[in-house]
Design a protein that fits this description.
Layout lengths: L1 E6 L3 H12 L4 E7 L2 H11 L3 E5 L7 H9 L8 E6 L7 H6 L4 E4 L4 H13 L6 H14 L14 H11 L4 H8 L3 H15 L4 H10 L10
Parallel strand pairs: 1-2, 1-3, 3-4, 4-5
InterPro entries: CheY-like_superfamily (IPR011006), NreC/VraR/RcsB-like_REC (IPR058245), Sig_transdc_resp-reg_C-effctor (IPR016032), Sig_transdc_resp-reg_receiver (IPR001789), Tscrpt_reg_LuxR_C (IPR000792), WalR-like (IPR039420)
Protein name: Response regulator transcription factor
Keywords: DNA-binding, Phosphoprotein, Transcription, Transcription regulation
Length: 221
């Protein structure tokens, strides 16, 4: 059973999400929070698998709440998915850097929301390739000269190659085709790279690829 915490200051939004999620045989809503502070408290108390976190909330916003959750080693298994009104929300970039595993627009189709919840808990990529590429473009536009490629010494040559392909927004299937390997092999390489770099998820791996200098702005085609 996948346990989800809903964090949004709008009661109607939470009610709509609850009705959809609770109707699924493999998903249950573990709790609801109306602001970021309450969300952090409930995550520590209930230990849900994932949090659907609104970016704009009173008292403590979703970004600060996400940082509080993702920086707590005891909550390492909790995945945060940011909720936003627009796909190109100005805060989406900071949300990913704050440790969010991805984001969803609030008017996402029901089937897509369910797929996303299941995907992020399974550790798969939540961001679609198109959304990932927009995120990368934003990162590239804002990034300064990257630091030397430190922290990558534990990676094999193939794992660095795979990380660079993740960094330019390729899915596991696209990586498999590029390297002429099976999708399962590509996924295994991505997973091992995340473990070695202690990346929470694929979104963080994209950021690390840029911050380490493994991928440079301008590589996005």
């Amino acid at each position: 059973m996948i346990r989800v915490l809903l964090a949004d200051d709008q009661l109607l939004v939470r009610a709509g999400f609850r009705a959809l999620l609770d109707a699924q045989p493999d998903i249950e809503v573990a709790g609801e929070a109306a602001d970021g502070g309450e969300a952090v408290r409930l995550v520590r108390e209930l230990r849900p698998d994932t949090v659907l976190m609104d970016i704009r909330m009173p008292h403590l916003d979703g970004l600060a709440a996400t940082r509080a959750i993702t920086e707590d080693p005891a909550l390492n298994e909790v995945k945060v998915v940011m909720l936003t009104t627009f796909e190109l929300d100005e805060y989406v970039f900071e949300a990913i850097r704050s440790g969010a595993s991805g984001f969803l627009v609030k008017d996402t189709e029901p089937d897509e929301l369910l797929r996303a919840v299941r995907a992020v808990v399974a550790g798969d990529a939540l961001l679609s390739p198109g959304v990932t590429r927009r995120l990368i473009a934003e990162f590239a536009a804002r990034s300064k000269e990257p630091a030397a490629a430190t922290g990558l010494s534990e990676l094999t040559e193939r794992e660095r190659e795979v990380m660079a392909l993740v960094g330019i927004g390729l899915s596991n299937e696209e990586i498999a085709r590029r390297l002429v390997v099976s999708p399962l092999t590509a996924k295994t390489h991505v997973s091992r790279t995340m473990v070695k770099l202690r990346a929470r998820d694929r979104a963080q791996l994209v950021v690390l690829a840029y911050e380490s200098g493994l991928v440079r702005p301008g590589w996005l085609g």
